[in-house]
Amino acid sequence: MWDWISENSGLVQAGMAAVTALIWMIYLHVIVSGLRRQRRTEILIHLGGARDLSARILVSNLGFEPIYVLEIMLTVWTADGQRMSSVADRTEIARDQHATPREATLQGPLKSGDHVDIGSVLDLLDRARHSSFDALEPQDIREVEVTVAAITAADSRIAAAARRFAMKGQGDDLSLCPQNLYARQIRSSWRRRRIEAQLRGRL
Question: Which domain of life is it from (predicted)?
Fold first, then answer.
């Protein structure tokens, strides 16, 4: 055995070098994957309280990095088609009732593990009416989708997440039914460029 190793020392050294390089590549992959997970945004959009139109919609930052909420958009589907409006500004609160300028808008920083109450579904619809949704009543709506767009120091591109809810019931007995278990994280370059274009169009 030792004679064979001695006679083939060059081959043995090359094999050991290859094994060592493979081990370092595995370590590097593990380290890079861990860093990507730490820098990856994870925005949660969920309901709090009841499941009717008074339900509170909460936005949480589950990523390791803080985010800055840049925009919140509400999309609704009715028999007449699809509409979208910004609902980041708290138009339901009179200006003279704001204790600080920060209370006028939902735009702003959100630390890791923090959450913000962006209002009830009725609040979002009221803001949308104030912006562009004239004469839109809850019973006319089939589905609603909340999209949160944010920026981070770790990425120069928009980070975003969306969650869709179906409207169930009739008249005063309307309720929200989430269409997916978690908020859908928008990570594809095409979708993020589309959101950026929508935001630029609203400037």
Answer: Bacteria
Specify whether the CB–CB gap between 165 and 179 falls below 8 A.
Answer: yes
pLDDT score of 185 = 92
Length of the chain, please?
A: 203
40-52 confidence digits (pLDDT tens): 789 999 988 777 8
Q: What is the CATH number of the domain that holds 170?
A: 2.60.40
Judge if 18 and 69 occupy the same domain: no
pLDDT of residue 45: 94
- Residues whose CB is less than 8 angstroms from the CB of residue 66 and which lie 6 or more positions away in sequence, other chains included: 109, 110, 111, 112, 152, 153
The total of structural domains in the chain comes to: 2
Sheet holding 56-61, edge to edge: 43-48, 56-61, 115-120
What pTM value is reported for the model? 0.77
- 21 and 60 fall within a common domain: no
How confident is the model over 69-120, as pLDDT tens digits? 999 999 999 888 888 888 988 776 656 555 666 667 889 999 998 999 999 8
* Other Cβ atoms closer than 10 A to 123: 20
Pairing status of strand 108-110 against strand 141-152: unpaired
Q: Alpha-carbon torsion 200, 183, 83, 172, what sign?
A: negative
163 near 172, Cβ under 8 Å?
no
